[in-house]
Amino acid sequence: MKSTIKLLALAGAFTLPLGALHAGDPALLDYPVTANGDVAGSVAAEGGGDAEGNGTDPRDLSAKFMPYYRFNKIDNGLESHEGVLFGLIPIKIGELLGQPDYKWGITYEFPAIKYVDASGPIDDVGRKISGAGGIDRIRSIATSQGITSPIPSERPDDKVWGTGDLNMRLLIPFYQGEWFGMPVGLLTGFEHWFPTASDDLLGTGKWQVAPHLTAVFDLAKDKGIFLATMNFWRTSYAGDSDRDDIERYVGRHFLNVPFGQSGYYMLAELQTICDFKNSDDWEVWIGPEFGKILKPGRILYAKPGFGIDPDPDEREWSFEIGYRHFF
Fold first, then answer.
1. Closest by alpha carbon to 78, among 133, 125, 140, 132?
2. pLDDT tens over the chain, length 327 residues
3. Measured between alpha carbons, how far is 17 from 95 in angstroms, rounded to an integer?
4. Which CATH fold would you assign to the domain 2-326?
5. Distances (CA, A) of 265 to 143, 204, 300
6. What is residue 133's DSSP assignment?
7. In angstroms, rounded to a whole number, what is the distance separating the alpha carbons of residues 265 and 150?
8. Residue 266: CB partners within 8 Å, gap ≥ 6?
9. Quick check: helix, strand or coil at residue 43?
10. β-pairing, 79-91 with 264-275?
11. Theoretical Cys-Cys bridge with 142: which of 220, 247, 275, 280, CB 3.0 to 4.6 Å?
């Protein structure tokens, strides 16, 4: 019954923007776009190519490929390394609906290479967790990416190589207008997580869905400064019954600040995450991304991250480095 309710809620989130389009919602029908379908007047309109267009605006639905490396250090000692393949595929759905410039986006994010070292974690009272019979004490990592949930106590290994869980996201723009004189864009859709990890320690073992609502505010449109907030309600609906169910809110909040015409920029991110199934505790994490536009559509970036007063199962610090390539 609960699974049916979740699927109905997902269907509603998916069809709402489409219904608005058929209803002739002026805010959607007048969605400002450039000749190639990007959002007019935003950094997306520059195709990720000038000093302001770094490809971080959620409204930018241009085709791109972004491989990156990410390291996470959890407060209890667990460490993970990931080589991730990320990309965005634009869907020109507007051609079917009489709106040729209107499009959706589908992203994919797959940890093609993943290594988790759980040989050093400690439990909530400071006792070392290591080896068989102890790995099950490692709690799920309440991040937007996720690493693991509690796994069977009989497993002997605590250092594992393999692949992680695949994540795909649908982005549906449904409003572009002004609020109190400030340009605002709204998107919706959902994420879906597939339990593709090659080992229990490398994934959640759960099928998950996460409807989202995203808002982007142009604080200084002419300078490419914007504030974006992405809000997900992530829940598991099937998978390994021996693993913890997942029910969490994930908020990802961004402030993009280009440094003039130098090609350098900073994208500050704040994550606010609440795990309702395990503790109802909030994880707060900040990660300032610093990047350089090498040439139009080619961006290199680095992103350190830090947990704010982390619990044992939360990120103490992290680091990410990657490359964005627009097509």
1. 140
2. 333 333 443 344 433 343 333 333 333 334 333 222 333 333 333 333 333 478 899 999 999 999 999 999 998 888 999 999 999 999 999 888 888 889 999 999 999 999 998 876 555 444 444 433 333 334 444 333 444 444 444 444 578 999 999 999 999 999 999 999 899 999 999 999 999 999 988 999 999 999 999 999 999 988 999 999 999 999 999 999 888 889 999 999 999 999 988 999 999 999 999 988 876 688 999 999 999 999 999 999 999 999 999 988 889 999 999 999 999
3. 16
4. Porin (2.40.160)
5. 25, 34, 11
6. T
7. 39
8. 256, 257, 259, 288, 289, 290, 291
9. helix
10. unpaired
11. 275
**Separation of alpha carbons 101 and 93, rounded Å:** 9
Length of the chain: 327
Other Cβ atoms less than 10 A from the Cβ of 71: the count is 16
Write the DSSP symbol of residue 113: E
CB 317 within 8 A of CB 288: no
CA 61/CA 115 separation, integer angstroms: 31
Residues 6+ apart with CB under 8 A from 315: 72, 73, 74, 75, 141, 143, 283, 285, 305, 307
CA distances from 201 to 74, 86, 150 (A): 14, 21, 8
For residue 275, which amino acid is it?
D
- Hey, what are 277's tokens? 């199934």
**How far apart, in whole angstroms, are the C-alpha atoms of residue 239 and residue 259?**
46
